[in-house]
Write a structure and sequence with these properties.
12 helices, mainly alpha
């Protein structure tokens, strides 16, 4: 896939015309969150796709864009590359058509699209989109805004996949610094530390920073103040294979048991 991202196609005066009919998107998202919280992820994709069709039927392009953005995340969860890349194209088309590329909301959808490109191996296509998002965020957000952490983490993954070690390391560390200042960001810090441990291991399996990163990740996930819900289980599941791969088997086993307990209790 070549998305051929051209910033000039995504800017201009944003479309402010009301849609003839609108859906209650916040209510739809609450329904989605309830499915995730109950570990009913297998139902989430059908749920979102059903509402997406409804948005298209009534001509609510804003709802369509919001739901497409949510589906990008869902397709990454289900590793459905065909649908994921098709959703990227649709999201980009909507942002182009309605000139949302320099708005924070539009940039956030672009971030989601770039992350999906990276998830399915299109890292060279992803990086220009990440860079555009970075410029928009830098112009309009506080440097410590939580959205920068997501941007830096996902952009780092693409740099790492392309063998650009120093760029990836700097972005992972920047993401961690931002999340350390946020309340309740333990799960996100843990995943970042695992990504950083993998990066160090790729360069040098004897690097002492690998163990430091894993210990920090475990400390975050073991925090009794974190709510053990579907989100925790999802984030922890990202860390389990890293713990296993790098030889921290007891941590991996404890996490797997905790995840299983969450799933059995919902």
């Amino acid at each position: 896939m070549r998305c051929c991202f051209d910033t000039s196609e995504y800017t201009g005066h944003p479309d402010t015309e009301p849609c003839p009919q609108t859906l209650d998107v916040p209510s739809i998202i609450r329904g989605l969150d309830a499915l995730y919280a109950q570990s009913r992820e297998n139902e989430a994709q059908d749920y979102l796709e059903r509402w997406l069709r409804e948005a298209q039927t009534v001509g609510d392009w804003r709802a369509e864009l919001s739901l497409t953005s949510e589906l990008l995340g869902q397709y990454r969860r289900s590793m459905d590359g065909e649908k994921g890349l098709a959703a990227v194209e649709r999201a980009l088309a909507l942002i182009r058509a309605h000139r949302l590329g320099r708005t924070v909301s539009g940039a956030t959808v672009l971030l989601n699209a770039a992350t999906t490109l990276g998830c399915f191996g299109e890292h060279e296509d992803a990086l220009p989109v990440f860079r555009h998002v970075s410029r928009v965020y830098a112009e309009q957000l506080d440097p410590l805004d939580y959205r920068f952490a997501g941007l830096f983490n996902n952009m780092a993954q693409s740099h790492a996949a392309l063998g650009e070690f120093s760029e990836a390391e700097a972005l992972f560390l920047s993401a961690a610094r931002i999340m350390e200042g946020l309340k309740g960001g333990g799960c996100e810090i843990a995943v970042t530390m695992c990504s950083l441990a993998e990066l160090y291991n790729e360069a040098d399996p004897e690097d002492g920073r690998i163990a430091d990163c894993i210990e920090r990740a475990w400390e975050c996930l073991d925090d009794p103040g974190l709510k053990r819900d579907g989100y925790y289980a999802f984030m922890a599941s990202k860390c389990v294979p890293v713990f296993d791969q790098l030889g921290f088997f007891l941590y991996a086993k404890d996490l797997e048991e905790g995840i299983r307990t969450i799933h059995e209790g919902t």
